[in-house]
Each structure stands twice: as C-alpha cells, then as structure tokens.
Here is the input.
Amino acid sequence: MAKRSIGDIEKIWSNVEGVKKLSDRAVGFGPFGIGLDGLLTWIPVVGTVYSVGAGGWLLIQAARARATPGTLLRMIGYLGVDSATTLVGEAVPFAPDVVDFFFPGHLMAAKALQKDIESTHWVEANEREARASGDHDRHVAAMKADPKKRRIVYLHD
Here is the structure.
C-alpha cells in the first residue's frame, strides 16, 4: 500500500463533505435539506444507481481513511436504509420515495466518517519504528492531551 499523508486524510474529509452536501444538502431549508439523492429518487433506476453509487463511494473513502469498525457499521446502517428506501421505491410507487426524499442517509454516513477522522491522532510514520524510537509514547501523550482524540493511526503501516 502506498504511504498516506495527513494531506490525503484531509482530502478524503473534504471529498466526503462535497458528497454530503450534493446528496442531501444541495438546497437547505433550516434544519432540512434536499439534494440529488432525494431528487433523483423520483426517476426510476437513476435514483437507485446514484444512491448505491454514492453510498459505495463513501464506504471506499472510509476504508481509505481506516475508519473504525463501529463507524463502518454505522455508515452501512445509514446507507442501507437509504438504499433500501430507494430500491423499494422502484417497486412501490410514491410512498418509499417520500421517505427517501427526507431521509439524509448519505449525510449521516458522511458525518460519521468525518467525526471518525476528527477523533483520530494521525501520524505520518510506521508504528513499529515509532515504538522502537520512543516516539510512540509521545504520540500517545499528544492524543491523551486532546480530549477529542480517541485513537492513533500510523499512516505508513
């Protein structure tokens, strides 16, 4: 695997932000928003392809960012409900489309991934080398000093 940098993680966060807005918040009305996912759900097949495709892309980004298993499961749950309502909308006209129109599955999955990224202390090094040099203890101390951080990920492993 190619070595990742903190810049790569920031780019993943930014790309996920774009999908979040495009899918479920292109037009906002206070706490509510409408995006491509809700609008395309009314077009047979196109809505399903977009919903499943955007969900799959978010999961790929989660894997690239080494999201925790809990975050991945939460994302799969949100995207599963979102995709299921889109797929059922193909078989039962109108009713599931309304649910999918208002259910921000991509937004919720993207927020879960972004929160996971923000709660990680990223290190551009190899864990084995950091432990051997003593830098690992410094990274643990830095992580514990920031109450938002819950875990350490070495990007060069």
Remarks:
- The mean pLDDT is 88.
